[in-house]
Write a structure and sequence with these properties.
Number of helices: 12
Largest sheet: 8 strands, antiparallel
Strand content: 15-25%
Radius of gyration: 23 Å
Structural class: alpha/beta
């Protein structure tokens, strides 16, 4: 089987590449996906993600190693194992990150990745509900919709944020990049999840120059004379096949699978590979290092009134909502359960927001309930603190040379003391905001962490016992020029010709928001690099917001 390009992984980046590379009928492309098809209704109905994310038939059911700074707890870290990858199971939140995130990449030596460089690719990829404009696209493959907020306790929370001294911008991707705003979601006009598969791959499936193989576990990259020439993969039933690439092999497996495949192929930290009996093809110490994630620490309140989204989870209302979505693409299950997108600074001297609030009008363990049978859960709301720019870094290693063994993943979150400080400051801000009217008129008892938690030591203990993550891993094949970098700014693997990595693993730092949109953006940009096309012309960004967003 001979192709021009082989793409490993049909996730957020792989689907984009499959579309853009096959637009030229001369390019023969093989797309390999370890999972199956994405035609299950839970992967189409927006609110279905709350069940799909933890179903092994749709995911790599990864867990961390015992986390050294979280009392040895193991954390679930599922990733999408289906066409569309994690874009088929995620919460659909559309966030680009702050403009300074990308300017920082450029300052780290990643030429061509400043905010001015990436803005035109963000615009090219989207059809925004806002229409075409300086910051948004109007004709891209990815549909971005406004979250419907009337039933999600949006208004009292935003009003409380304004009363507490925070900005309430109309668009977090426009002139103002922080504050309390309406969330945006990757949902198309028919009310379906706009995954990378639906947006990019499905329009390309009829092209004769695209071959898609599902249920294909890639075992290793074939390297000859320091050049990637193909891959070896296993299909269902155990048959092992090889395919050769005349031009490039492109890894798009994500921040856990891409470094795993590099190491299985003998590309990675030489000492670790030799310890496992894997011949070293190229000693590249940065593979699997620099793992960065957004930690999440739970904050939960009771409600003084029974007004949470739990009301819509009564069995008859659930049936009606599912039917409404199926017939019209609308209704309460055609959106996300989120009160507002809140990105703010814990200190006015910071250059950009350092926390996001996971502000939801319902408890995270909410269950469908039947009147008169069993007991309905108590009405609760959440306001978890998410660290947007953690200083802690983790790593990914191989357990064995067997490609079927999940990698050993250590997030190592809260290894840096500064991250504990951000959590403490964030929870204190949440307490103030959620006690400010009109939200304060609804907020009842603080259940997590509880009003008794006040001292630094108590906050640290609480964090170690309860912290989790938001499923935004990046950095394990980091872009740059230093000794710990894995790819150059053209996303070519150092030391191996004909091999690139195009997925979130190449991000040198985690952007300040959900990572699906930046991953699609970088794949759009990478497609131009791979095809030898000039990059889109940089667009001069607006003046960055610098005024303190906290009340004096």
């Amino acid at each position: 089987m001979d192709f021009d390009f082989i793409i490993v992984g049909a996730g957020s980046a792989g689907c984009v590449l499959a579309n853009r590379l096959t637009a030229d009928p001369k390019n023969r492309v093989l797309l390999l996906e370890a999972g199956g098809h994405d035609n299950h209704f839970l992967l189409k109905m927006p609110l279905g993600f709350m069940r799909a994310m933890f179903q092994p038939r749709f995911t790599w059911p990864f867990w961390t190693e015992p986390e050294p700074h979280l009392n040895g707890r193991k954390l679930p870290i599922p990733r999408g194992r289906v066409l569309g990858g994690s874009s088929s199971i995620n919460g659909m939140f559309y966030m680009r990150g702050h403009s300074l995130d990308f300017d920082t990449w450029r300052q780290m030596g990643c030429e061509g990745w400043s905010y001015a460089d990436v803005l035109p690719y963000f615009r090219r990829m989207e059809t925004s509900w806002r229409g075409e404009g300086p910051y948004h696209g109007g004709a891209g493959p990815l549909h971005v919709a406004a979250n419907q907020t009337a039933h999600l306790l949006h208004d009292p929370l935003v009003a409380a944020g304004r009363a507490a001294g925070f900005a309430t911008p109309d668009d977090l991707h426009g002139d103002a990049e922080e504050g309390f705003a309406r969330g945006e979601l990757t949902i198309d006009p028919q009310g379906f999840r706009a995954s990378a598969s639906r947006a990019y791959l499905k329009p390309a499936l009829s092209r004769p120059n695209l071959t898609v193989v599902t249920g294909a576990l890639t075992r290793r990259v074939l390297v000859e004379d320091k050049r990637a020439v193909g891959v070896e993969y296993e299909v269902q039933g155990g048959e092992v096949r090889t395919a050769r690439a005349a031009r490039e092999v492109i890894l798009s497996g994500g921040s856990y699978n891409s470094p795993q495949l590099l190491m299985l192929s003998g590309i990675g930290p030489g000492e670790d590979l030799r310890d496992l009996g894997i011949p070293v093809v190229h000693d590249l110490p940065g593979v699997g290092r620099n793992l960065s994630e957004h930690p999440r620490v739970p904050v939960q309140f009771a409600l003084k009134q029974p007004v949470s989204f739990l009301n819509h989870l009564r069995i008859d209302r659930v049936a009606g909502a599912v039917l409404a979505w199926k017939l019209t693409g609308k209704g309460k299950f055609a959106t996300q359960v989120n009160s507002a997108n809140v990105v703010i600074r814990t200190r006015p001297d910071l250059a950009q927001p350092d926390i996001q609030l996971f502000a939801n009008p319902v408890r995270l363990d909410a269950k469908i309930w039947v009147p008169g049978i069993g007991k309905r859960q108590e009405h609760l709301i959440t306001a978890d603190v998410i660290l947007l720019h953690p200083q802690s870094r983790g790593w990914v290693k191989l357990r064995s040379p067997d490609p079927k063994d999940h990698p050993a993943i250590t997030l190592n979150i809260f290894s840096e003391a500064a991250d504990f400080r951000t959590v403490r400051d964030g929870i204190r801000l949440v307490r103030r905001i959620y006690r400010t009217p009109p939200q304060g008129d609804l907020t009842g008892e603080e259940l997590l962490p509880g009003a008794a938690v006040q001292s630094d030591a108590e906050f640290e203990d609480y964090t170690r016992r309860t912290a989790g993550v938001t499923q935004h891993p990046v950095g394990t094949c980091a872009m740059g020029h230093g000794s710990q970098s894995v790819v150059d700014p053209q996303l070519r693997v150092h030391g191996i010709a004909g091999l690139r990595v195009v997925d979130a693993s190449i991000m040198p730092t985690v952007p300040g928001g959900n990572t699906n949109a930046p991953t699609i953006m970088l794949a759009e940009k990478a497609a131009d690099m791979i095809l030898g096309r000039p990059a889109l012309a940089p667009e001069t960004p607006r003046a960055h917001l610098r005024e303190p967003a906290l009340a004096s």
